[in-house]
Amino acid sequence: KARVLDGRVCKSAFSYTARFAMVRRTAEADMVRLKKYEFPIKRVARKLCLDPALIAAVISQESRVGLHLDNGWDPDRQKYGLMQLSRQQPQPFGAWDSEEHINQGSNILVLSINEVQARHPAWTWDQQLR
Questions:
Q1: How far apart are CA 111 and CA 95, in angstroms?
Q2: What average pLDDT is seen over the chain?
Q3: Active-site residue, 38 included
Q4: pLDDT of residue 3
Q5: By CB neighbour count within 10 A (0-12 exposed, 13-18 middle, 19+ buried), where does 104 fall?
Q6: Which of 28, 62, 99, 100 is catalytic?
Q7: Is the pLDDT reported for residue 12 higher than 50?
């Protein structure tokens, strides 16, 4: 969206296009670490009928594929694992970087997407996913 500032039109630094470009750069930087989880991600994706790239994107954005974690925890010790499950979620399954954990986080993702689809059936898939 454009804003007017002192009579000039400028694009917000946090526009959708800018965020998308930033996400893409982050994901590209995380590709080396994501390779370690390629097969667990693909197995979980196949089981849940998800695109493996979606799971990988969540892992990249939530924890930078573990780069920012201390023993699986975020710096504030409020979220756990590659997919950053909050303390409000049920007990995490498996180790923070295990296939079980990826499966649990992906199941939560599917439930969340289903909730948005139920509330907004007229939205496109992209809108629902966003």
A1: 22
A2: 86
A3: no
A4: 40
A5: buried
A6: 62
A7: no
